[in-house]
Specification:
This is YqzM family protein. It comes from Geobacillus thermodenitrificans. The chain crosses the membrane at residues 20-42. With 44 residues, the chain is mostly helical. The protein is built from 1 helix and no strands. The longest helix is centred in the middle third of the chain and has 29 residues, at 14-42.
Length: 44
């Protein structure tokens, strides 16, 4: 048995955590893009 598997901090699935991280980062950059597009549109 692996030494590091004796006391794990979280037993959740890593795919769920990585999906949440991807969605949060994608949402942040999409929001930045939308704000920049709106500024460019109303700045004309």
């Amino acid at each position: 048995m692996n030494v590091f598997e004796k006391e794990v901090q979280s037993k959740r699935n890593d795919a769920v955590d990585s999906a949440v991280g991807f969605i949060v980062s994608f949402g942040f950059f999409a929001t930045m893009f939308i704000i920049a597009t709106l500024i460019e549109f109303f700045g004309r």
